[in-house]
Amino acid sequence: MNFDFLFNNFAELTVTGLAFGAIYALIALGYTMVYGVLQLINFAHSEVFMYGTFAALWTTMLLVGDTDVSTLRGIGVLLCSLVAAMAMSATIALLLERFAYRPLLKRNAPRLIALISAIGASFVLAELMGLRDRVAAWFGLDDNLSEYVSGARINRSMPSVLENKQLFPIGDYQVTSVDVLVIVSAIAMMVALDQFVRRSKMGRGIRATAQDPETAALMGVNATRAVQMTFLLGGLMAGAAAFLYMLKIETTKFDVGFLLGVKAFTAAVLGGIGNLRGALVGGLILGVAENWGSALFGSEWRDVVAFVLLVVILLFRPTGILGESLGKARA
Amino acid sequence: MLLEVEGLCVNYGHIEAIRDITFGVEEGSITTLIGANGAGKTTTLKTISGLRKVREGRILFEGKDITHLPPYERVLLGLSQSPEGRGCFPGMTVRENLDMGAYVRKDARSKAYAQDLERVFHLFPRLEERVSQTAGTMSGGEQQMLAIGRALMAKPRLILLDEPSMGLAPKFIQQIFSIIGEINEQGTTVLLVEQNAAQALKRADTAHILETGEIVRSGTGAELAGDDSVRAAYLGGDV
Ligand SMILES: Nc1ncnc2c1ncn2[C@@H]1O[C@H](COP(=O)(O)OP(=O)(O)OP(=O)(O)O)[C@@H](O)[C@H]1O
Ligand SMILES: [Mg+2]
């Protein structure tokens, strides 16, 4: 075990781990909210995220092209990409709800059936993106859009918009503006969501539906709307995660959702599925532990560390670190 | 008639839970449904609220056919229910539960709202002491009070109460029934389902007896309370 490496790079490993963890946490919110309300694992949530990364990528390509942009323009471009990513992810999430789940749940299908539907939807969405050149060709758009649809099965990189400045040192690591942006905005989004669910009327309706759907209906909560809202919020968070991911990693691919989705789901379970704050805690712990673990054992062990951690924590706390569900938590 | 139920049939799979139920609830009255366990009382209330699918028959509220309306639209029309058992939201505080009762109201910051809250606290002082306690940690009886208080916060035209006295101490049962009388005098029509037939019949203007999914007897509360066969079956022989 390489302790020297861990100690010598402790600050960097921790800060970048937190940045990754914040992204996991944002995606985890979608899993956890849908689970809290429907006791359903939205397996296709990884694709909700993946489409967000492409929305951010395409928007940036469209607005920047090959030219250098001024700082002010750069900030504008980033904001547009953020909005596009959130809009795209929210749209995909709502489509999933409408077409993959609602028809099944209306007929009281077992959750297992909905899970199969989710897995199917996940493959369809991923492959549509992975075959986007051919999809464009169906519509005769492959020439016009070639810049966007070519290389459908390989990594595509985002043009860099703003210089990643080194801001301040922690230990011997220079914290970058991207690190700060990712961590701060992810946490801000989560606080906003938490407050919305805690304080707004719609949020109360969602929590009521999570705790007892029949009684919630007796109070006048429109169940369909509450479920839609849950998917919408999860989608918005995944879109924000997608944008931050593109800032940090700068490349994406049609299958980028799979591993990230599994990690985010792990983070949700780690923190206590159904619990919004648990998603944050689970995500951050997972991100940091992965970085420390891969420093100790070598980066090829990164994913192993994540899942061993999950198993160990669940052995001691079967309901996750914060336990409780969206329903039971006072959140 | 405020509520009319006509020839209602509801199934769970192949099992008929209620069969050809017909009755009405007069505006301003207290109407009660009594019957043994499994007779179909809860099913009837759930169906009126829109939680169960109607196989046959109609439900009219103020003459309007609501048979196929989703539950929340019925609440908007003025139909509220306090469900059987501990129907509280366990993860919410007492105050949040009461606010849930008023979910369809748009006057959360008004004086009227504060007064209604005041009224609930006046009826159930225990709830005021515990406003920020999580409902799931309250005793069964306290949760039952909360469920009733919550239904009142909706300010319904018709309130459906499913066994409001369940799990309460004898002294408090008496109090619950007088509260129901009070609610009714203040202008809310009540449809009451009860195991405590003696109390229910005493208060009710009209009563219906359910047996295995069918209405077998109807009459005024006093009539049924005075009927020998009813006394033998539901009132333990003497009142
Ligand atoms: N979800 C369900 N699935 C299948 N059968 C059900 C369901 N709910 C109720 N039943 C059946 O329907 C019949 C009527 O039940 P219901 O709950 O309406 O009775 P009840 O009169 O309210 O009884 P109690 O006084 O015990 O509350 C019973 O035979 C019951 O077993
Ligand atoms: Mg019952």
Give the arrangement of secondary structure elements:
The complex is a heterodimer of chains A (331) and B (239).
Chain A: H1 3-8, H2 10-38, H3 45-64, H4 71-106, H5 111-130, H6 132-138, H7 146-149, E1 156-157, E2 166-170, E3 173-176, H8 177-199, H9 201-211, H10 213-218, H11 223-248, E4 251-252, H12 256-271, H13 276-297, H14 302-316
Antiparallel strand pairs in A: 1-4, 2-3
Helix pairs in contact in A: 2-8, 2-11, 2-12, 2-13, 3-4, 3-5, 3-11, 3-12, 4-5, 4-11, 8-9, 8-11, 9-11, 12-13, 12-14, 13-14
Chain B: E1 3-12, E2 15-25, E3 30-35, H1 41-49, E4 56-61, E5 64-65, H2 71-77, E6 79-82, H3 94-101, H4 111-123, H5 125-129, H6 140-153, E7 158-162, H7 170-185, E8 189-194, H8 197-203, E9 206-211, E10 214-220, H9 221-226, H10 228-234
Parallel strand pairs in B: 3-8, 3-9, 6-7, 7-8
Antiparallel strand pairs in B: 1-2, 1-4, 4-5, 9-10
Magnesium ion binds next to helix 1 of chain B.
Description:
The complex is a heterodimer of chains A (331) and B (239). Chain A is mainly α and 331 residues long. Chain A has a single domain, classed as ABC transporter involved in vitamin B12 uptake, BtuC. Chain A has 14 helices and four strands. In chain A, the strands form two sheets. Chain A has a two-stranded antiparallel ribbon with strand order 1-4. In chain A, strand 2 and strand 3 (173-176) form a beta hairpin. The longest helix of chain A is centred in the first third of the chain and has 36 residues, at 71-106. Chain A is globular, with a radius of gyration of 20 Å. The termini of chain A are far apart. In chain B, the strands form two sheets. Chain B has a six-stranded mixed beta sheet with strand order 6-7-8-3-9-10, sandwiched between helices. A four-stranded antiparallel beta sheet of chain B has the order 2-1-4-5, with helices on one face. In chain B, a hairpin with a 2-residue loop joins strand 4 (56-61) and strand 5. With 239 residues, chain B is an alpha/beta fold. Chain B has helices at 41-49, 71-77, 94-101, 111-123, 125-129, 140-153, 170-185, 197-203, 221-226, 228-234; strands at 3-12, 15-25, 30-35, 56-61, 64-65, 79-82, 158-162, 189-194, 206-211, 214-220. Chain B contains ten helices and ten strands. The interface between A and B is medium-sized, with 24 and 30 residues. The complex binds adenosine-5'-triphosphate and magnesium ion. Residues 12, 15, 17, 35, 37-43, 84, 195 of chain B line the site of adenosine-5'-triphosphate (ATP). Magnesium ion is lined by residues 41-42, 84 of chain B.
